[in-house]
């Protein structure tokens, strides 16, 4: 049974993602109508540069006044693909106030102000969906908050940034250094002119905050996420990783900690075994591992960015939100009932791979081992190489807290026989 | 805001899956209540053998009268984990008639009577959810019918039976024959005493029917699915596969055909390149590739069977259905508006790997090549080996229809110089 009055959609932003959303809404209009139960109509498109020619979009729909568009009062769903904090936040708030539901792809905003946005949606009885904010087309938000709603998620471990995965994969497969691999990523359009948000881990940290919040039914904000970028990963680190049967990935890791009494969320480069499914995630692809009590290990894999894949996620949400509008219901809102606190990075327990430049003389290993022991960090393996009075020690530890490891490293730096700490890398996925 | 009157759940079946559902409903009662917005209560458990001791289940809830349980009138959700066609079908129909929604894990029933069950659910304004029917804990039904609702799915390619994947993986990694690998699977509990449903592909075919129906918004029944088991896969086939840089998997493949005018669904063993992500799916794990217009390639991976993983999928559905009950809405029902017909296997286009035992004399290759050409099947590569008057020819074709290939093989068998067709295997995933 098809309703004939169309649902009206306002599109905020018409860049790489927005233009794909508009295109699919037009080319797949019949399918969308069948799947929603009513036709869905693009009622307005807010852009910054109205003069730009947008193929397939009626010029009369284009406006520079996004505020007026969301306040029109006849809009059923606002699709926000502008990105950034403002004006997106104010526009979304206005959308709820004027009766619209919202589909957003805005990871930065969700990670910073998710709770307030959810509260506004609930206050006005509207939906806030944002599958596209994490890992592009990969269904992740919906499986976490619906498919696994009867399970207890213990860990989310993923590659959620395609740019950095492209760079690290290139370094791994060609032996290139960071700068060389970044230059290639930029030339191919995988990295932006200013790659800071990607390579320093800000983008992945926002996604980690969103995933941790949903997975653990608690509030986790961007500021709660420990973040280390991958600009200091070297070809030597990849050589060390290979020696251990590992590769290096920039991982977002969200875990229950402290016997379930708290959670941790962090983004940093880490060694993972080549046998781990995440190790074979190539190029700009994303993949996320989810470990739960009952379902065990699940993995979700796919393109983590790009106009069409992100638009697919937006449109899946649009269909759900439109169906909810028609039935007068709302989908799952924020679920933060568990209220678990976020533990600091010092409490995180994992394994470490540490490379030290040391003096090539007897007794150094004993000195170093003593420092580890004094800080309660148990050593798994040590490899010692040396020539011409210079030597290096590679230590791989058993599981230890980040705080203990930091204390160990600080003490090591004070040893006369330790000339430098060449690298410290966490080892995950074992 | 929490409602205090509990939602009542009737559990039909208390075997491997049902007992896990009951256990998690008890141990995670608080979490489930928070996520649903009301407590959820086990109101009755229908079993065949009431005398069996069931840990953690109040004996007063146990009954052998499943019919009376679903007809009580106060049941909000019936969870059906009996399996098989009857009495499950009659009980589900009675559940809808008496006002309950249904969560089912019953792939055989859904593949055979999905349309009628969906119609009954819709008639009574209730939900029919069945995430657990396909690939255990892996979220697949929900992503296909919700996350990808704004996209156009073109192909679903998956390993959806853990038993056969365990056997094939064992054959691949150890060089064992089929019977030896099956015996090990049986000893480890991965195969049932009568493994027919798994090894002959019936289980996978039911899942293929369900996936094809949802992916293509059309009705696909078990009978529409072409099915070949994997009992005739030999160690020699694995050796051939390795020569091609491939392995062998039992695949469920659902595709659009005929320029989108129809669909095909099939289950058979196939060679896939080692570089394909499905090639590295080990043991009893399942994984499903979904290819769509906008989102590109997605993969979903996880445990495809087992009590706890399947229970996780059931409980995810239970939470969704309970939420719908509270809001007075229903989730997405059957979507068969596209009404695409199912094409016969002869229309399927793919590549083939054919091993022939031939006479070791000049001119045989020319004869064989002529037969391929006469049937319009283009040859990609031929490898010829021979000694002592016996020889074998391994032909890999370009893409051709199954009908053309069948005609080719029939004609080859009639050649005097062809002593036998040792194996025919499709090549997928390229």
From TrEMBL, chains A, B:
Class of the enzyme per the UniProt entry, highest EC level: oxidoreductase
Function: Catalyzes the conversion of L-aspartate-beta-semialdehyde (L-Asa) to L-homoserine (L-Hse), the third step in the biosynthesis of threonine and methionine from aspartate.
Organism (species): Streptomyces sp. 900105755
CDD domains noted in UniProt: ACT_HSDH-Hom
InterPro entries to which the protein is assigned, alphabetical: ACT-like_dom_sf, ACT_dom, Asp/hSer_DH_NAD-bd, HDH, HDH_cat, HDH_CS, NAD(P)-bd_dom_sf
The protein's name in its UniProt record: Homoserine dehydrogenase
ACT domain span: 353-426
Pathways involved: Amino-acid biosynthesis; L-methionine biosynthesis via de novo pathway; L-homoserine from L-aspartate: step 3/3; Amino-acid biosynthesis; L-threonine biosynthesis; L-threonine from L-aspartate: step 3/5
